Amino acid sequence: MSRAILSHPSLLSYLGYCFFYASLVTGPSFDYIDYERFILTVAFDDVPAEKQPGKRRKRKIPKSGRIALRKVLGGLVCAGLFVAFGTRYSTAMTRTEEWKHMNFFVKVFTMYVLGVVYRLRYYAVWLISEGACIVAGLGYNGYDPKTNKLYWNRVQNIDPVAFELGQNVHDCLEAWNMNTNKWLKNSIYLRSSARDPVSGKPKPGVIPTFLTFLTSAFWHGTMPGYYLTFVLGATIQTVANL
């Protein structure tokens, strides 16, 4: 499906997209075309009649309460875990005298746990907001007639299991802030990549990779830590592709 916007939206439609209640505070991000198809309900044209709720008057948006509830409950569990362990595992512990004399391998393990605890905040808010998008209908991502299954992952922004068990940097990036990464890939990486003269497909390159990561760093802010992090990430990604 094309992502192009064929006509300028009205001011009301544009403001509705910018201030969509389910993702206003924490995301996830999504393309305007997805919002437009959701508002006009054309995104649900492939939903079979038996999947449409209502006995007398069929609604186009199918039910998604259970799926949304699972997302929200997952987010609440992550929030609870962060509240339980957030005070015990924080960056403040790395500035204590005890930390200076701690065994190196214990430090490595502790830093890993610290990273997991910090990521729980993101898991919580992204899962809850995704649940809100799903129950609104924006998360609908098509119907598979072979399996008779409705998909609700259009605005999925995080896959905690895939991220924590990722085998390389690419796997982790694919599972983290997924919709923003899609935008970076389509708008920065693919547009700045050289094309294969035969197939016409974009070829992996060092410059597109660093340009994409630097754009992401600038998108996050101006603190030096962002640029150190994303330049290091681009370096690791480039080395992994060798």
TrEMBL record:
GO cellular component terms, semicolon-separated: endoplasmic reticulum; membrane
Keyword terms: Acyltransferase, Membrane, Transferase, Transmembrane, Transmembrane helix
InterPro entries (alphabetical): LPLAT_7/PORCN-like (IPR049941), MBOAT_fam (IPR004299)
GO biological process: glycerophospholipid biosynthetic process; lipid modification
Membrane topology type: Multi-pass membrane protein
UniProt keyword annotation of Acyltransferase present: yes
Annotated transmembrane regions: 12-30, 67-89, 101-120
Protein's cellular compartments: Membrane
Gene Ontology MF term list: 1-acylglycerol-3-phosphate O-acyltransferase activity; 1-acylglycerophosphocholine O-acyltransferase activity
One Pfam short name: MBOAT
Name of the molecule in the record: Unnamed protein product
Organism lineage string: Eukaryota, Fungi, Dikarya, Ascomycota, Saccharomycotina
